[in-house]
Design a protein that fits this description.
The complex is a heterodimer. Chain A has no helices and eleven strands. Chain A has strands at residues 4-7, 10-14, 19-25, 32-38, 44-51, 56-59, 62-67, 72-77, 86-94, 97-100, 104-109. In chain B, a hairpin with a 5-residue loop joins β5 and β6. Classes of the chains: A mainly beta, B mainly beta. The interface between A and B is medium-sized, with 22 and 20 residues.
Chain lengths: 110, 115
């Protein structure tokens, strides 16, 4: 069974700092990995999708890397803004199942 | 992009009544949809996989008679919580796989409160 762990569970950073969010998974036989953002009481918004053959994906201030062999992905958010405050969820897809971590809860302090 | 619309966003119901949650794919056909439940500060828990034109597949421990799923068309799946109890209060989210294998898209979620 795929286990997904996200560290740290929660963090607060001052505005302007770079954010580094970590995701690890136990079964490296994945098809892809997806990072989502969730605001309180809301659904999930897809941020980045990395196919298993890719090493990273970038979108604006966001960059996600994938090291499938070691079972890790990292989401970088450059120059954080208060609007980046949210919970970030990592999900891996493999064996016809999507497995989620518990999320990184981020607060960016103005 | 692929959008899934979920309604209602919030519902309060009395204990013993039934509540229906709808999930629609707006600009694509979804032969399969997924229903999740989320507890505070927890990850999403898959409840069932909804298949168009056939019975849903439920995860272990999920009562299929309590959580009725219907996927009558390629764009609509519904989850009905029957005889709701306070312990059913939770956040329910639906999802569909984007065609072409480009990940998953999620609805905006439904906050169910049973009083």
């Amino acid at each position: 069974k795929q286990e997904v762990t996200q560290i740290p569970a929660a963090l607060s950073v001052p505005e302007g700092e770079n954010l580094v969010l970590n995701c690890s998974f136990t079964d490296s036989a994945i098809y892809n990995l997806q990072w989502f953002r969730q605001d309180p009481g809301k659904g999930l918004t897809s941020l980045l999708l990395i196919q298993s053959s890719q090493r990273e994906q970038t979108s604006g201030r966001l960059n996600a890397s994938l090291d499938k062999s070691s079972g890790r992905s990292t989401l970088y958010i450059a120059a954080s803004q208060p609007g980046d405050s949210a919970t970030y969820l990592c999900a891996v897809y493999g064996n016809n199942r999507l497995a989620f971590g518990k999320g990184n809860q981020v607060v960016v302090i103005p | 992009g692929a959008v899934v619309s979920q309604h209602p966003s919030r519902v309060i119901c009395k204990s013993g009544t039934s509540v229906k949650i709808e999930c629609r794919s707006l600009d694509f056909q979804a032969t399969t949809m997924f229903w999740y439940r989320q507890f505070p500060k927890q990850s999403l828990m898959l409840m069932a996989t909804s298949n168009e034109g056939s019975k849903a597949t439920y995860e272990q421990g999920v009562e299929k008679d309590k959580f009725l799923i219907n996927h009558a068309s390629l764009t609509l799946s519904t989850l009905t919580v029957t005889s709701a109890h306070p312990e059913d209060s939770s956040f329910y989210i639906c999802s569909a796989r984007v065609q072409g294998g480009d990940g998953y898209t999620f609805g905006s979620g439904t906050r169910l409160t049973v009083v």
